[in-house]
Design a protein that fits this description.
alpha/beta, single chain, TIM Barrel
């Protein structure tokens, strides 16, 4: 069984390796001249794109094939203040260069729209905002030249005092999404509202891939054993490689927040469970120390009997 590892957005081993540079609405509103305002936005985006390219080069050099793009690449992309700014056309060469590198090195690239991207909201303005955000993310993948594939991780949303009604509302909205959005979505269990079995059942109904978050499952479950759920979760991916999220709790009081590192003892039980099915999968490490935490976990796993390091960011569990 081969398992690849990746990390989220920022590369701490890369100097100035954050592609999250942005600007507040309050600050941009203080710039009265629209030309100067637009130039400020363009400079920020240019820096984020160049940083992304440097990070991808670092990933290639270290055999990292799994990576999550930041949703903050384009500053204030979905805010009305940037209406009319064609950030794709302005930097089409940069987008193309990044996309060409991704395709050349067969990287698995994803993004995770923020928690306010709610498809089951009862409020029309919240739903409209969610659709704008998904349109924005899809525009980035199109600019990169990446075909529709499971690229966007999404949570189900709120309970709104009635779980079944909220799920039905999600299904209704999901089925009305444009194909260019719908085909890019994968659904993840969360740490409070929708458990792994909830999301698995929904994914089976919608024919949508499920991203299992093993930390969220620990936080919120109904006693289900992952050994029983994992084969069905894998089946939601068809012939594609499944992906999971791995993290550790920050501390006993703040159990739901992510720690700096992923504890190997927290990840190992799932690895052993997955070995029973013996299906390759990818792991997105969600830890505050980003790529440093990913490599730390790999170093610890390498010490486990039966685990063989294959390249810098991949293991085989024999």
């Amino acid at each position: 069984m081969r398992v690849r590892f990746g990390y989220v957005a920022i590369a701490l081993n890369v100097p100035q390796g954050s592609p999250n540079k942005t600007i507040t609405v309050k600050t941009i509103e203080k710039i009265p001249d629209h030309t100067i305002r637009n130039n400020r936005l363009r400079l920020i985006l240019e820096e984020n794109l160049h940083t992304t390219l440097r990070i991808l080069r670092y990933n290639v050099a270290h055999d990292i094939h799994v990576y999550r793009l930041t949703s903050k690449t384009v500053p204030l992309a979905t805010h009305p203040i940037t209406t009319g700014w064609n950030y794709i056309e302005d930097f089409q060469d940069e987008w193309r260069e990044i996309g060409d590198m991704i395709k050349k090195h067969n990287m698995r690239i994803s993004a995770h729209p923020d928690h306010y991207t709610l498809l089951n909201s009862q409020k029309s303005e919240v739903l409209e905002s969610a659709l704008r955000d998904l349109d924005y993310h899809v525009s980035l993948f199109k600019a990169l030249g990446l075909s529709p594939a499971p690229q966007l991780v999404l949570h189900i949303g709120g309970l709104y005092n009635n779980k079944q009604t909220s799920i039905a509302r999600f299904i209704n909205t999901f089925n009305q999404l444009p194909e260019g959005i719908r085909l890019r979505l994968m659904l993840e269990n969360d740490d409070k509202s929708y458990s792994a079995i909830d999301v698995l059942t929904l994914c089976q109904h919608l024919n949508c891939p499920m991203v299992l978050d093993i930390h969220h499952h620990t936080c919120h479950n109904n006693g289900e054993d992952l050994a029983h759920l994992w084969p069905d979760i894998v089946n939601t991916w068809g012939n594609s490689v499944p992906k999971i999220h791995a993290s550790s709790p920050k501390n006993s009081k703040d159990f739901r927040s992510h720690a700096d590192f992923v504890q190997v003892n927290a990840f190992l039980p799932f690895l052993k469970t997955a070995k029973e099915l013996n299906r390759d999968f990818d792991v997105m490490v969600e830890a505050k120390q980003k790529d440093v935490a990913m490599f730390h976990l790999l170093d610890e796993l390498e010490k486990i009997p039966g685990v063989k390091r294959v390249g810098n960011a991949t293991i085989e569990y024999l």
